[in-house]
Amino acid sequence: MALRKSAKTGLVGLAAAAVAATAFVAPARAASDEATAHKANVHKASANKHHHRATQRAMDAAVRSGTPGITAQARDPHGVWSSTSGVGDLESGAPRGKNDRFRVGSITKSFVATVLLQMEAEGRLDLDDTVERHLPGLVRGNGNDGRRITVRQLLNHTSGLFDYLADDEYSRTYLRGDGYLEHRYDTLPPEKHVAVALAHKPLFVPGAKHSYSNTNYILAGLIIERTGGRTYEAEVRDRIIKPLGLKATTNPGNGIHLPRPSSRGYSKLFASDPDRIDDITEMNGSQGWADGDIVSTTGDLNRFYNALLRGKLLPPEQLKAMKTTVTSPDSPDMAYGLGLTRLRTSCGTTLWGHGGGMVGWLSMAVSTEDGRHQLSYSYNADWGADSMQAIVDAEYCE
C-alpha cells in the first residue's frame, strides 16, 4: 500500500578458525589471537561507524524535524551498520530498536512481482497473459476490461486501473480521521478493493502510460492464488521467506498486532487538527494485502534485495524483465520496472529498490545494482516523507 498523502514514498529492503600447533603454545596463542581479533573488530566497527556518519546525521535531522523515530541498516564492503534515531514510543520515550519489525507497505510489491516472475520461469503463466485468462470475469465494468490488460501491465502500473486508495469514500472510511479509528480492525477481502477500483472508469487505455495503482497488486495477488492453487501468503513464504531465512518477515493475514520487537506507529489522521498524533500500531493486516501487507526488518529487507539483484531468486531472463522500466511524467527522476523502482541519487548513483507507505509507517529499501551496497530504513510515522531522500543521498553520496 502506498498512501496518497505520502506519495513521495514511491521513489516511492563469516567465519575464521585457527588451530594451535601444540598443546603447549595453544593457551598463549589463543590469548594473543583473541586480543588481536578484539582490536581488529573494534577498529572495523569504528571505521564502519565513521563511514555512515553522514547517514546518521540525516536520520537525526529528520527526527529533529518531527519524525518520532527511525531504524536503519546499511550493508556494504565495510560490513553491516545498524543504527537508530529518535523514539519508538512517544508515551514512554523508549528508543527505536535496531531490530524493530514494521509494516513495510509497498515494498511488498517487490515480493509479489518476484513470485509471479518465478511462476513465469516455471511456465505456469506468461507476463503477456491477460488478466481475464487468470481471473475470468473479474475486471469488467465502467470501461474496465481484463481482456485488454496483461499481467505485465499490472506489475509495471501501466494497466490504467483506478487506485482504490484514491477513492474518496474509501479514504474517509479506512485511511483518515474517525473513519480509520472506527474501522481499523475490519477484515477486508481483496475483492472489496477491486470493486472499489472498478466503480471508476479507467484512467487511460492499458499500456498508454504509467500511473501507480495499488489495485494492480491486489489483482497480482489474486493471480498468484489462482495459478498456485493456494494463498498468496503461502507462496511468498515458501518461495522467498523460507529459502532466504528471513526469520523476521511475515504476512499478517487478518492479524492486528505487530510481532515483537517493534515500536509504536503514529499518524496525523485529522487534516483539521495537524498537531494531533494518534497511535495506530494495531490494525487489520488485510487492509493492505498483496499491495502492502508484509511485516519485516531492515536486515531482512537488505537480505531480500541482495538475493534478488544478484540473481538468487530469478533466472536472468526474468530479472531482466523486472528491471525493464517505464517512466511517469509525474516522476521523471524515477523509473518503474516490475515491482522494482530505479532511482538516481543527487550524485548520480543508480539504485534499485522500493519505498512503502502505510498508515503510521514510511519505509525505504534500496541497493546498488550489484547488491554490494544496500540501505533500508523505517519511520514509525506517516509524515516527514520530504526528509527520506536526504538519508539515501547521505548514504550514497557523502
TrEMBL record:
Keywords: Hydrolase, Signal. Residues 63-361 form the Beta-lactamase-related domain. The keyword Signal applies. InterPro entries: AmpC-like, Beta-lactam-related, Beta-lactam/transpept-like. It comes from the Bacteria. Residues 70-99 are annotated as: Disordered. Residues 1-30 form the signal peptide. Its EC number is 3.1.1.103. It is an enzyme of class 3 (hydrolase). One of its GO terms (molecular function) is hydrolase activity. This is Serine hydrolase domain-containing protein.
